[in-house]
Design brief:
Oligomer: single chain
Shape: elongated
Strand order of the largest sheet: 1-2
Radius of gyration: 26 Å
Distance between the termini: 58 Å
Number of helices: 17
Order of helices and strands: EEHHHHHHHHHEEHHEEHHHHHH
């Protein structure tokens, strides 16, 4: 049942789509939409996690399926919450947890280098840590870094600093003698279609290297030889969907037609085989013998179909997020930036790049001086002071809260801290404590600003405050001013 035909074009250009008939084209489109609808119903809350989580979100984002208005915003908020709860370490040993989240966050339009105040790409700069998972770690690290051309991060804690080329070379070095790859990199075992498909997708962008193209050619020959008479593949002793889905996505990434003669057996293509696992309204099954739907199989099947559709439409590939729409944000209705109260506010010790920011905030009563005509831009701040300034900057009405045992009623900052907590701008330091008099760090300030950005519709602006050290009053003014400016509120 051929519904789309793709003819391979040059390496970096789109693949042209040939339609045998409009009705047949709509049939494939209907399958994709039905599978997306099934996944959306099964994971309507867009949570962080593997099956029914990040992969579903990625598939829905890349398919263009019409999700609810706040679906991607809520997912991003969940990703930020997970990053904060784990202090940026999603898993100390399985760095594919980071790679998966980087791909999903990027697919919904976020920047994976600043999620909840943490750089989710950071572990991928640790070569040894990444390849601890073997070929799987290298493949997904490369796909994650390349999805938005993220720079390879400097990972000071790792023994060996990674580079893209190191991951490419690692994949090449672990190719099997007769072509293809398997999970264990075991030369005595057969190539696995799903692992080979993943490796080919990771290497697709490096085909200008002779060694890469040679490995790809050998793997394509091997997979063609392993393809079953029904157009699919067998793994672990049984025909299943995953190998078919991953190889379909690989052909699209490589610009190889789905009806290339090497991958047509008895008139059946990979696409034909993939659709044999489909049941209308129930998604896809893992194997022909399986009964009922399988979330993981449906995620992989939909991603394969999306790769096919995007290739045919001349769009960026499945994992090429350059066309991902910026994360939609809306200003919270309670946000009201104060009007100018004193246009003549000024300080004797403020000049240069921070002057506009300090004066704009001072004119609105958001920040004040030290009582002697100075602002003291190099001084540090307490956590309570910073929370107060952010609440004032957003024009939120101060109200007492009872969330922290060390913020007693009657303190000048109590209502501001209570308000910041109520809107999710601040978090405590554990055991019900806020530590209001503690000096705020750059990391803590960055996290507060990201939460404030979510309230006022600004992009993530806390990335400049990553790292150690304490934030100064001058840095605070520039960051808060940038937040309001990006949101179009000042």
């Amino acid at each position: 049942m051929k519904t789309l035909k793709i003819r391979g074009l040059c390496l970096l250009l789109a693949v042209a789509l040939l339609l045998p008939s409009g009705a047949m084209a709509l049939e494939l489109e209907g399958v994709s939409e039905d599978a997306a609808s099934f996944l959306y119903a099964a994971a309507s809350n867009g949570q962080v996690g593997s099956i029914g989580g990040d992969w579903t979100v990625l598939a829905l984002a890349r398919s263009g399926y019409p999700v609810g208005e706040r679906y991607f915003q809520d997912y991003y908020a969940a990703a930020a919450s997970a990053a904060r709860a784990r202090e940026g370490v999603l898993d100390a040993k399985k760095y594919t947890e980071h790679s998966r989240l980087v791909l999903a966050v990027s697919a919904v339009g976020g920047d994976a280098r600043n999620v909840g105040g943490y750089d989710l790409t950071l572990p991928l700069g640790d070569f040894d840590g990444t390849v601890r998972q073997g070929i799987n770690g290298a493949i997904w690290a490369l796909l994650a870094l390349d999805c938005r051309d993220y720079p390879v991060p400097v990972c000071a804690e790792g023994k060996v600093q990674a580079s893209r080329q190191m991951y490419v070379d690692y994949i090449l070095e672990n190719a099997l003698p007769d072509g293809g790859w398997n999970f264990m990199c075991d030369a005595a075992s057969d190539a696995e279609p799903d692992m080979t498909g993943m490796a080919l997708q990771a290497l697709a962008g490096y085909r200008d290297q002779n060694g890469v193209q040679t490995a790809i050619d050998r793997a394509i020959t091997r997979m063609s030889g392993m393809q079953n008479g029904d157009g699919g593949f067998t793994s672990w002793g049984a025909p299943n969907l995953e190998g078919c889905a991953q190889m379909l996505a690989a052909l699209c990434a490589l610009g190889i037609s789905v009806d290339d003669a090497r991958f047509v057996k008895n008139g059946k293509t990979l696409e034909d085989n993939l659709l044999t696992f489909y049941t209308p309204g129930k998604g896809f099954a893992h194997s022909a013998e399986s009964t009922g739907s399988d979330l993981m199989a449906t995620e992989q099947a939909l991603q394969g179909l999306i790769a096919l559709e995007r290739a045919g439409a001349g769009q960026a590939g499945l994992y090429e997020m350059s066309d991902a729409a910026a994360l939609a944000r809306k200003t919270h209705p309670d946000v009201r930036v104060p009007a100018v109260q004193d246009a003549n506010a000024g300080f004797s010790d403020v000049s240069g790049g921070e002057q506009d920011a300090v004066l704009a905030l001072a004119a609105r009563g958001i920040v004040g001086g030290m009582g002697d005509g100075t602002f003291c831009p190099e001084r540090t701040m307490t956590r309570a002071q910073f929370a107060t300034i952010v609440v004032r900057a957003l024009g939120l009405e101060p109200k007492d809260g009872d969330g922290f045992s060390d913020v007693p009623d009657g303190q000048w900052y109590a209502a501001y801290v209570g308000t910041a907590a109520a809107y999710g701008i601040i978090h405590g330091r554990g055991d019900g404590l806020f530590d209001p008099e503690g000096t705020i760090t750059r990391q803590e300030a960055g996290i507060m600003l990201e939460q404030a950005a979510a309230l006022c519709g600004a992009a993530e602006i806390g990335s400049d405050l990553r790292g150690g050290g304490r934030i100064t009053r001058g840095e605070m003014a520039r960051a808060v001013f940038a937040l309001l400016e990006q949101a179009g509120l000042i």
